[in-house]
Write a structure and sequence with these properties.
Blueprint (H helix, E strand, L loop, with lengths): L4 E2 L2 H21 L5 E7 L3 H17 L2 E7 L5 H13 L5 E4 L9 H7 L11 H8 L8 H13 L7 E5 L6 H10 L3 E5 L6 H7 L2 E4 L17 E4 L3 E2 L5 E2 L4 H4 L5 E2 L6 H23 L1
Parallel strand pairs: 1-11, 2-3, 2-4, 5-6, 5-7, 7-8, 8-11
Antiparallel strand pairs: 9-10
Helix pairs in contact: 1-10, 2-10, 3-4, 6-7, 6-10
The protein binds guanine.
Length: 286
């Protein structure tokens, strides 16, 4: 049995960022600086960390990141007001509202209010719907990053059996659509799936996005499977743990992403890619 390839998400993200830095330099020569507005509501520590990672990535590639911090007790109307102002601001190419929002804020109303051509998260129904009909505009960053990571070790996805564990709107569903578009045979497993171990055992590609530490056991995997772990769970010792039992998967999987250092950096690189694309689209629209 050959060893398991550990997919280095940080290294692949750096390659994507280097390419984006070249694109932003070209845009700057045309007097355009791509601009991302990040709306952060409240003080959620994990959200603050994510936003800081996004801001730093923006700095590295020459994208302007504007922080719009709102206090944790704001109303839905106040968040909508902020989003509408950003929709109307011609200097802003992309808008990201960091999730989760506090319970009193209606998340769906906020996401619906983002202008689809600035929705760099790809969460607006207009962008999700375009993905469904095979004419994507902005694709959600995590699934897009996962496709990149899969292709890095498995260039021929066509005909493969892919299992997506989790059916969220921001990861599982768009992930299944992207894999379908790449001609994989796709199964979506979720909390009501009867025999998850058997489904995992049949899959050439497994994408785990459930948010439960080590839920996917190493011995369930088909030998040689490509395993993409979207889970970011915090253990009792404060360390990050994926949805897959990484140590048990080593030696059995053909390739696997680590947590941290796998999907996370690629999500951010894909966000930056969407912002640069938004700036290009605006130039092309004139
Ligand atoms: N919270 C966790 N992941 C994400 C993401 O990809 N985008 C936004 N906006 N919020 C998140």
């Amino acid at each position: 049995m050959t060893g398991t390839t550990i997919i280095d998400g940080r290294a692949i993200a750096r390659e994507v960022e280097a390419d984006l830095a070249t694109k932003t330099s070209a845009l700057l020569e045309r007097a355009v600086r791509p601009c991302l507005a990040v709306v952060l509501v409240g003080e959620d520590p994990a959200s603050r960390v994510y936003v800081r990672h996004k801001t730093r990535a923006a700095e590295r590639i020459g994208v302007e990141a504007r922080d719009h911090a709102l206090s944790g007790d704001v109303s839905t109307e106040r968040v909508l007001q902020e989003v509408r102002a950003l929709n109307d601001d011609p200097a802003v190419n992309g808008i990201l509202v960091q999730l989760p929002l506090p319970p009193q804020v209606d998340e769906n109303r906020v996401l619906l209010a983002i202008a689809p051509h600035k929705d760099v998260d790809g969460f607006h129904p207009d962008n999700l719907g375009r993905l469904v009909i095979g004419e994507p505009r902005f694709v959600a960053c995590t699934p897009r990053g996962c496709m990149h990571l899969i292709r890095s070790v498995c260039p021929e996805i066509s005909g493969k059996r892919a299992l997506v564990v989790g059916r969220s709107t921001i990861v599982g569903k768009p992930m299944a659509l992207l894999l379908t578009q790449a001609d994989a045979t796709v199964i979506v497993a979720h909390s009501k799936t009867q025999d998850l171990a058997a489904e995992v055992g049949r899959a050439d590609i497994v994408v785990a996005a459930v948010g439960r530490p080590k839920m996917i056991r190493g011995e369930w995997l088909r030998a040689g499977a490509v395993v993409i772990d979207v889970g970011i769970n915090r253990g009792d010792d404060g360390k990050l743990i994926g949805d897959v039992d990484f140590d048990a998967a080593l030696g059995r999987a053909g390739a696997i992403t680590p947590v941290p250092g796998g999907v996370g950096p690629m999500t951010i690189a894909c966000l930056m890619s969407n912002v640069v694309e938004a700036a290009h689209r605006r130039l092309d629209r004139g």
